[in-house]
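User: Predict the complex with pyridoxal-5'-phosphate.
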Amino acid sequence: MKVFNKAFTQQEAIPEEGILAAIEVMRSGRLHRYNTLPDEKSETDLLEIEFAEYQGVPYCLACSSGGYALHVAMRAAGVQAGDKVLCNAFTLAPVPGSIHNSGAVPVLVDVADDYCIDLDDLEAKAASSGAQYFMLSHMRGHLADMDRIMAICDQYGLFLIEDCAHTMGASWKGKKSGTFGDVACFSAQTYKHVNSGEGGFLTTRHGEVMARAIMYSGSYMLYERHFAAPAKETFQQIRFDTPNYSGRMDNLRAAILRPQIARLDAQCERWNRRYSVIEAVLRQSATIVVPKRPEAETFVGSSIQFSLPSFSASQMLDVVKRCGERGVVLKWFGDAEPKDYTSRYDSWRYIEDMPKLPNTEQVLATLLDMRIPLTFSEEDCVLISEIIVAVVSECES
Ligand SMILES: *Cc1c(COP(=O)(O)O)cnc(C)c1O
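Assistant: Here is the predicted structure with pyridoxal-5'-phosphate placed in the model:
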């Protein structure tokens, strides 16, 4: 029996230049982003400039987490208590959580067979709910048809916030994920595409939205010390009516992130090589369905999802258990019981008037998910996927 014995939670080391830069910051004692010498740009300032450049957008704010960025995005967009916000039912808990944190009410939209948001359900709920905001989670790196998404946003006048926690480095028809909507949010938490333990980014092309986001993030009246930011006139009124929701990035984290942004594209290629190795082996099984991804999508294969459409709930549990016994860690999104990082929409019971979403439950009932850490070699990926294929075949009967 084949067994795999590396940890699915093991990340790569922080690049050496990042470690050296972090030591430099610690030696200086100036860890706070606004603790700069005259005319000096802090590591956090430079990180914002570099990530704005990477995304090709004018404004970027680095902050304490991806979930914080999502919350501040809601606030900066002008969401008021009780407002409705369209959002994927298939996503992770910080997404509806950030909507709730702004006092708004999530309107959950179904998932489609390709694991993207269901565009027909989106259109129907955009029409029926009266929502003016849409938080689109590019969940597990799957980009929905962005042309149609934008057409729906235009038609219903939706303010679009993209949750790019799993699509940092991805694009649709060559246009970067996070540059379609009004605001985009990214995470630098350990299990995402860059790793500072905790951290996040908010980007936008709207000056006023960025001015508010900067004030919310805890800039006090030091907003002029932001460089990937609008001119100081933009803050003239905003500085009086925007509360401080303290959630800044610090120079230590920024120092370890900067070299990771510089090598992000190369890392994405390494993920994709691993992804294609796994995908090719899984496709050899007639039982396993890996949905074909659209030509227009350039994704980052930092995780893989596949379905076992003919399997019952007990077979799904059996696959997860037996794979686990052989060192292969799979997550089942269909479990009624929330576990680890994974929770099905109906476990977010704080959402008022929670709809029943039978289509979503049906898709999630046979959906499995696996992380692909870069510490795995391509040979590891062959072994892992062979184990999955073998286990699926054992559980088949
Ligand atoms: C991780 C994650 C977030 C939130 O990021 P944190 O930095 O952990 O707050 C938001 N959305 C999705 C889909 C995520 O996976």
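Residues 65-67, 91-92, 94-95, 137, 139, 163, 165-166, 187, 189, 200 surround pyridoxal-5'-phosphate (CB under 6 Å).
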